[in-house]
């Protein structure tokens, strides 16, 4: 008997493993449930340490068949101390979980797709698909290519060119939809009912979402098997923040970390902030929005896990904030300039929201806080268009270079220090 | 006046396999009643213990989420195609607004007074 199964998140009805995303009694979403008593034998610190340097070191608590052999080493990304960013924003104990370098396609979506496609294969699908704001499209296209699956991917027509190219290069069929993500998602639901395909975020969604837990497992392990005080998480559909919380809960239940009430903070762009608005209004219900933001990877106006995300935040005594497009660009630049991490617009949202949470006193300077960076800046370079002037070339002569330095060092003191260093 | 209503696969267990109905309902509350009249077995699944429509059931009219068209206040037009899709997202806010200026927040919210654009309390950017 499998040690995991599907369970309705609202009425609790149990379902055997199948490509199913909703309860046939109350039409609420399903999630994967585990026999945690059984997992106590296999999910130990020692067994994990012996595992691969990827998210598959946590395979014992991921919903894949026991004999599953991973084909792609996704996850296990760096957890970096961020003292320079911390100094800039008033934080003394800040870490960045850097999924900008998640393999194979440079976003945290590689984690969820790894789990979803493992299930697509075990359910016998020969074609897989997704609705995507870009990163998921890249991840599905790449990993489906590696597994030899046919791929249909639906995206909003206005997606960033890099994300379109990074999907097409893997040979995926990319269908651009004249509408926003919510239109794309609705169509995907209809397609999944008509065709016998595995849609990773529709009929495979319960399995897919579990991949996000590995972000939480890794944070705990990389902190030396302890939990942080706070986590700041970007929110699109709202799934990631709930799954990090689930991961921490499982680690506590299994005795791998000490009990701790971690506070969860959600980050959105103001131009698409339905979950942040629900949190600010003290409501679990989500009012959909028409997205209008440069943070397209977070532009889901009708978030599938919104009510659960809002509840997870409130129950943890956390908070949600949203920031403007101007702040998002500044956030991207700030993280790059201080910590050498180039993130996409979603990471700009997380960085700017993190700064605001410190500024408003919602997070205190000494608290151990992890900001989750979920995607790579190389995919959204258009967000920085016009930020950096292309300067005239200088002649390959020392005199030109000295004139350049003189013109670019802002103070006489800086210039003197520079010249002194050369002597 | 009639609208075509497309039902999801998940409903079929309670509709004897029917996937589509024609309805003369004038608006959403009347449509939900009409669906329940057609398929009495569906009623207990569509509504929670308080008789409220479950939050994960979404209605779309000709590609648009009915919440953007006025929700209960939207009057169906002849030939409208109504799509019912469960489980994509949550239900509607009781407040009826997407964003609030600081002074307009519902009293019940009782939380932050920060403007959602600039982050400042009592801002003037609205």
Notes on the structure:
Chain A is of the alpha/beta class and 423 residues long. Chain A has helices at 36-42, 45-49, 83-89, 109-122, 135-147, 161-168, 181-194, 205-210, 213-222, 239-253, 274-280, 306-315, 325-339, 345-359, 398-408, 412-422, and strands at residues 4-8, 14-15, 30-34, 79-81, 94-98, 127-131, 150-156, 173-177, 198-199, 230-234, 263-269, 319-323, 369-373. Chain A has a six-stranded mixed sheet, with helices on both faces. The N and C termini of chain A lie far apart (74 Å). The mean pLDDT of chain A is 94. Chain B has 126 residues and is α+β, with helices and mostly antiparallel strands. Chain B has two helices and five strands. Chain B has a five-stranded mixed sheet with strand order 2-1-5-3-4, covered by helices on one side. In chain B, β3 (57-61) and β4 form a beta hairpin.
Q: How do the strands and helices of this protein lay out in sequence?
A:
The complex is a heterodimer of chains A (423) and B (126).
Chain A (H helix, E strand, L loop, with lengths): L3 E5 L5 E2 L14 E5 L1 H7 L2 H5 L29 E3 L1 H7 L4 E5 L10 H14 L4 E5 L3 H13 L2 E7 L4 H8 L4 E5 L3 H14 L3 E2 L5 H6 L2 H10 L7 E5 L4 H15 L9 E7 L4 H7 L25 H10 L3 E5 L1 H15 L5 H15 L9 E5 L24 H11 L3 H11 L1
Parallel strand pairs in A: 5-13, 6-7, 6-9, 7-8, 10-11, 10-13, 11-12
Antiparallel strand pairs in A: 1-2, 1-3, 4-5
Helix pairs in contact in A: 3-13, 4-5, 5-6, 9-10, 10-12, 11-12, 13-14
Chain B lengths: L2 E4 L13 E4 L4 H11 L4 H4 L10 E5 L2 E2 L15 E6 L40
Parallel strand pairs in B: 1-5
Antiparallel strand pairs in B: 1-2, 3-4, 3-5
